[in-house]
Amino acid sequence: MLDRLARSSLARKLVRSFSSSSAQFNMPYTTIERGNPNSLDYRVYISDENGPISPLHDIPMYADAANKVFNMLVEVPRWTNAKMEINLKEIMNPIKQDVKKGKLRFVANCFPHHGYIWNYGAIPQTWENPEHLDDSTGCKGDNDPIDVIEIGYRVAKRGEVMQVKVLGTVALIDEGETDWKIIAIDVNDPDAPLLNDVSDVEKLKPGLLKATLEWFKIYKIPDGKTENKFAFNGEAKNREFAHKVIDEVHKFWQQLVKKEAEAGGISCANVTVADSPFVIQRGDAQDVVDKSPQPGPAQPIEPIVDKWHYVSLK
């Protein structure tokens, strides 16, 4: 392992050249907040330079296909608890907070963790088909875009479109469904040049993979759920394996948006996808945002959200 000083020096040298080549990845996406944060009407719409878009359908999967650089939509910034996610059923697929039994969902803090321990989000133009039985896990997909955990140093912003390189993946089995978690890093992170596969993660960030598995195993236990399980005994698969998984779920998304697969209530409205029967006019997309609740002040959060839960695995 490189000593800290040598590693830091090498990272600085490499990141300068890497960053200069990745400057082209900066995308002109912005967020439009509507409603009151911490309320049922809160939404975050995504816009490009021409107006509102669907982050699920209109943001390309690749920022740079030749170099396997992916776009990642950040749903949950690191250290936060609100379970924010792309709303699949609403037109233009805004980010909203998940709701359980009529209440906003916050992820429990399981000691020693606080909220999410990485930036959490999804790769656009992907879909884990709930009718497809995965050969490697033996379980069907979870009906969502594929999840990404970004392990860089920076705390991202909700709705940010980050460019990442994929390092590997783990396969969470969540209530009998395959729920892939792609491990990635921001291409502009200082450690990005030194992280090229999942085997590099333990070298540069010792304990992070172990903590990641623990987090996913226990985070639902305070809500009365059982411990989550992983395929492959929790083994993290490498970059090549992860790329194949992403390619597969991208094909499922193509079938979805071209009406070759049953949508099951997913809104496929988009403004840019060629050959999609769900394309709508830009003005119609703007109307969706204009008719949503006006932005307002954040509502108070119950103190119980900050509680630390002490959970031990058997």
TrEMBL record:
Annotated GO MF terms: inorganic diphosphate phosphatase activity; magnesium ion binding
Family matches, as InterPro entries: Pyrophosphatase (IPR008162), Pyrophosphatase_sf (IPR036649)
Entry EC number(s): 3.6.1.1
Protein name per the record: Inorganic pyrophosphatase
Leading EC class: hydrolase
Cofactor(s) it depends on: Mg(2+)
Any one GO CC term of the record: cytoplasm
